[in-house]
Design brief:
alpha/beta, Hypothetical protein af1432, Rossmann fold, 7-stranded parallel β-sheet, 47% helix, globular
């Protein structure tokens, strides 16, 4: 672009402020223009221009002498001092400028005030004020104290009006409205105190609000600004947003080649379910936004739902004109790895050259920081940006990542919020959502689907009553038929309390009597699981591979053991697996007998799905459930909600014989109906109130998908020679003074580093190291604190002397 004016102001050390503001504004407008939103009483052009204005003015505060002095300083020590001066900070001045700029746009164009428009200026103020930090509650943001007022006055005395005027003359060439920068500044100087007071009242009035629109629009604008701002700062161009094609028939081809010869009963059932679901693609209406695939465990939900999503994506593109991302979200890391590997295999089978990170992305806190697109492998900081922004066609991620993007005040989480819109969202094992959040999830996902054109697919064998039946489109018409056709296991429920010693003796007898059968024994706590594992190990069972799984084991070893269990087809050795509940949902293993400490009905059903999973056993699988009690109470009460446990017991009390798998659906329906009728909505209502009132900090603190009542400490376990190298590299990285460079280099080893990290209760482990915020067990102390079979020894009184 030709510029007659000689621009000098910088936004970054190597970036003109003029270029940065224009690019951020254009990127923001492009993003929102590509999102299909259903809001009847506000024109898309208003949202588009508002997002453009926020992007254009978000860094206006950098046009002061103070910021320019800081950004051009070469001496690092002096630069650090300048950075910490209040006059250098640009967020508040930029926010005030944005407020009046957006207000002027609305007034100049005679855009009528309504429920949303009334809030747009103050929304823009808060967004820009916090675009380098986390959001606070909206009511706490509309203030300026005396010190801040003085800083604003000082900044305006040394503000480059002329260059900013030239930037706006150049950028607003489409004549959104004419602008005199000094007029805007005069409004800032003369009106901000009275307007702050007015906006406090506007925010306070939200106490009577019962609509999610303001929260969603707020997060949408905030997300778009964060993403556009950082995209321009990192890439300078927008080719990273190019969308990729996915063959909608890729799974059809895969199934035809891989499973065409497998004509056993379970595979025939999987094919029947698959064909019924896929056959609905042509007839479904895209006005239906929430779908359910509720079929028995082990009947191919993953492949079926993905194939449905791929075909839905093409249908939406054809009929609606936009191309949805597919967000596949699961509750546990173990099944994320499993499902990601399956999806990757699909693409590699079709054409190994077609699969890269722009097509398929895995995102959780332990995932590898590496992003590839074609022949281009991005730098580590670029890769982190692209991964955390969900720049891919298929994102395989955790419930934690998904729901903490939806309900958050964290800058780093909200940046990908806009990618929730216009997406196909698969929520696998949806029964894992705590019932306290059912109402919150219902209202929020329904709003996302209705107003932001997202499609939700719920996958489960145990359908919770988060949504009413009338609000869901069932992908299987007669699901009862499929549940009745599967009779792989019998469940035996013993509601009499027994001690752990009694439980061990029962297991011992069965293990010795059935020496050729594979066993899975699932306990509710690490302590009880270790006790049982040690007991079984002491039996010295012949021709037996004994496995132990819990979060006490480092992730690298845990994944290795799961893969070994899944792939161990040695007929000479039977498998005996002792695990906590991490094994139960979705992990594709198959055993003959399951023993389970008492749990909620959905958990019992999930672990039953690991028994005779493929229906290839000569005899039906057996699942035995016992109520194990320690000296204080039933062990299940340490980890499960007593309300859910009581409802599960109520369901089982009337049953006097073994439960056949054919009756599972009926029991699940009874259970979830009891839960819905008896549960409280207080926690959901509280969180919804925070959303209605745009109390971001409150929702960020209140919403906890994983609620732990004790503090945990990360511990690095130096288990092998590779771990020694990684820990030494970690120590070197911690010596780097520049925090940005330190983070950049750590990202290169992040995945390998966390392969050796476990989280342990703080009262069971060592004191934190202030530098690294992580504890450490060296190889010299390994035998003392970490057992090769059971992992971290929680019963050891760990001295601080082993801490790095």
């Amino acid at each position: 672009m030709k510029k007659s004016y000689s621009f000098k102001l910088l936004s970054h050390p190597d970036r003109l402020l003029c270029d940065h503001l224009q690019n951020t504004a254009n990127l923001s407008k492009e993003i929102i223009n590509n999102i299909k939103i259903n809001i009847d009483y506000i024109e898309k052009e208003v949202l588009s221009t508002s997002s453009f204005i926020i992007g254009l003015s978000h860094d206006i505060g950098k046009a002061t002498y103070y910021f320019q002095q800081y950004i051009t300083e070469k001496d690092e020590k002096r630069k650090s001092l300048l950075k910490n001066k209040p006059e250098t900070h640009h967020g508040l001045l930029s926010a005030l400028f944005t407020y009046y700029l957006l207000k002027k746009y609305l007034e100049t164009n005679n855009i009528k005030i309504n429920n949303l428009i009334d809030y747009l200026p103050i929304i823009s103020f808060i967004i820009v004020r916090r675009h380098h930090g986390d959001l606070h509650n909206a009511l706490d943001e509309v203030y300026l104290d005396e010190d801040q007022e003085k800083i604003i006055e000082e900044q305006l005395k040394k503000f480059d009006y002329n260059e900013i005027q030239e930037i706006f003359n150049l950028t607003l060439k489409e004549k959104i409205f004419s602008l005199n920068v000094k007029d805007i500044i005069d409004e800032v100087v003369n009106n901000y105190k009275s307007d702050i007071f007015k906006n406090k009242k506007i925010i306070r009035d939200l106490k009577n609000n019962h609509n999610l629109l303001l929260y969603f629009i707020f997060q949408l604008f905030y997300s778009i600004l964060l993403d556009s701002d950082k995209t321009d700062a990192i890439f300078r161009e927008n080719n990273i947003r190019k969308r990729e094609y996915i063959d909608p028939n890729i799974i059809d081809v895969y199934k035809k080649n891989k499973f065409s010869q497998n004509n056993n009963k379970i595979n025939n059932l999987r094919n029947e379910i698959y064909n019924e679901v896929i056959g609905k693609i042509k007839e479904i209406s895209l006005n239906d936004k929430i779908y359910s695939l509720n079929v028995p465990t082990g009947t191919g939900k993953t492949l079926t739902s993905l194939s449905f999503a791929f075909k839905m994506r093409e249908k939406i593109k054809s009929e609606k004109g936009y191309l949805p991302r597919i967000i596949y979200s699961l509750p546990f890391l173990s099944i994320i790895e499993q499902n990601y590997d399956l999806i990757e295999k699909l693409f590699k089978f079709s054409d190994p050259k077609t699969i890269d990170t722009s097509i398929l992305l895995k995102h959780h806190h332990l995932s590898d920081i590496s992003y590839k697109k074609g022949d281009n492998e991005y730098e580590i900081d670029e890769s982190e940006f692209l991964i955390e922004g969900w720049n891919s066609e298929i994102i395989v991620t955790t419930f934690w990542q998904f729901f903490h993007t939806l309900f958050s005040n964290k800058n780093s989480m909200i940046r990908k919020f806009h990618n929730l819109s216009n997406s196909i969202i698969i929520l696998d094992e949806i029964q894992s959502i705590p019932h306290n959040y059912w109402k919150l999830i219902n209202e929020s996902l329904s709003f996302l689907a209705e107003k932001f054109n997202s499609y939700i697919i719920l996958l489960t064998a145990t359908q919770p009553l988060i949504f009413c039946e009338k609000n869901i489109k069932e992908l299987i018409i007669n699901k009862e038929k499929y549940f009745k056709e599967i009779d792989r296991v019998d469940l035996s429920i013993n509601l009499n309390e027994i001690s752990l010693e009694e439980f061990k003796n029962i297991i011992k007898e069965d293990l010795l009597k059935n020496s050729n059968k594979d066993f899975l024994i699932v306990l509710n706590t690490i302590k009880s699981s270790i006790d049982v594992f040690k007991f079984i190990k002491s039996l010295n069972l012949k021709n037996t591979e004994l496995y132990y799984l819990s979060t006490n084991i480092i992730p690298k070893e845990r994944l290795f053991r799961i893969n070994k269990i899944r792939n161990n087809n040695n007929d000479k050795f039977r498998k005996v697996i002792v695990s906590t509940q991490l094994i139960e949902a979705g992990v594709d293993i198959d055993v003959d007998v399951v023993y389970r400490d008492f749990a909620t009905l959905d958990s019992i059903n999930q672990v039953a799905g690991r028994c005779n999973r493929n229906n290839l056993k000569e005899m039906k699988g057996k699942v035995y459930v016992f109520i194990i009690k320690d000296r204080k109470q039933e062990i299940n009460k340490y980890i499960y909600d007593p309300f859910l446990i009581s409802k599960t017991k109520d369901i089982f009390k009337s049953i006097t014989s073994e439960i056949k798998e054919t009756n599972i659906l009926n029991l699940n329906n009874m259970y979830f109906l009891e839960v819905r009728n008896g549960m409280s909505n207080d926690i959901s209502d509280e969180n919804l109130k925070y959303l209605y009132n745009v109390s971001f900090e409150d929702i960020g603190t209140s919403f906890k998908l994983i609620d732990e009542d004790y503090d945990k400490v990360d511990v690095f376990i130096e288990k092998d020679k590779n771990a020694i190298k990684i820990w030494n590299k970690f120590k070197e990285i911690n010596e780097i003074k520049n925090r940005f460079e330190r983070k950049k280099i750590f990202l290169k080893i992040k995945k390998d580093f966390y392969d050796y990290v476990i989280s342990i209760r703080k009262d069971k482990t060592i004191s934190l190291n202030n530098l690294s915020e992580i504890s450490y067990v060296s190889m010299d102390n390994l035998k003392l604190y970490y057992d090769k079979d059971i992992g971290f020894k929680e019963d050891i009184e760990t001295p601080s002397s082993i801490c790095f």
